Amino acid sequence: MLSLSCAVQTYEWGKIGEESEVMQLAVSGCHTLELDPSSPFAELWMGTHPSGPSVLREEQETYLSKYISEYPKCLGSASREAFGMSLPFLFKVLSIRKALSIQAHPTKEHAQLLHRQRPDLYKDPNHKPELAIALTPFEALLAFRPSVEIAAFVQ
């Protein structure tokens, strides 16, 4: 098993300091940098995403993506065949203090096109299917009403 130092995202909507499960996890083993306890700690990222790649704790200079390229069997043959030499997901722990901004994720094909056209904005060619498992009480809104219902409300 590999022990990772994971990226911490301090988005404005995250819980502040030690109130945040993200900060608690980061301090307890995933993170090696100094963390400002007055900051909002929103997300802990575990994966190979270029905006927040995980690093092997035993070898602080080794990114998880480098380890995968050096030891491709760690992904398993089915994953390598389907997704190549990268993780097909970004595992996140969220610690939410207030409502998040609305998000819209492209299809796989559109994500690939956007990444080719604007790699500075679209860091990877993957779509963003999401799965949420609430560890604490949680409320969420998902999708939109059918357009016919929205039009009826407007009238």
Automatic annotation (TrEMBL):
Pfam families: PMI_typeI_cat. Its cofactor is Zn(2+). It is an enzyme of class 5 (isomerase). Residues 1-146 form the Phosphomannose isomerase type I catalytic domain. Belongs to the mannose-6-phosphate isomerase type 1 family. One of its GO terms (molecular function) is mannose-6-phosphate isomerase activity. Pathway: Nucleotide-sugar biosynthesis; GDP-alpha-D-mannose biosynthesis; alpha-D-mannose 1-phosphate from D-fructose 6-phosphate: step 1/2. GO terms for biological process: carbohydrate metabolic process; GDP-mannose biosynthetic process. InterPro entries: Man6P_Isoase-1, Mannose-6-P_Isomerase, Pmannose_isomerase-type1_CS, PMI_typeI_cat, RmlC-like_jellyroll, RmlC_Cupin_sf. GO terms for cellular component: cytosol. NCBIfam families: manA. It catalyses: D-mannose 6-phosphate = D-fructose 6-phosphate. Keywords: Isomerase, Metal-binding, Zinc. Gene3D superfamilies: Jelly Rolls. It comes from Opisthorchis viverrini (Southeast Asian liver fluke). This is mannose-6-phosphate isomerase. Its EC number is 5.3.1.8.
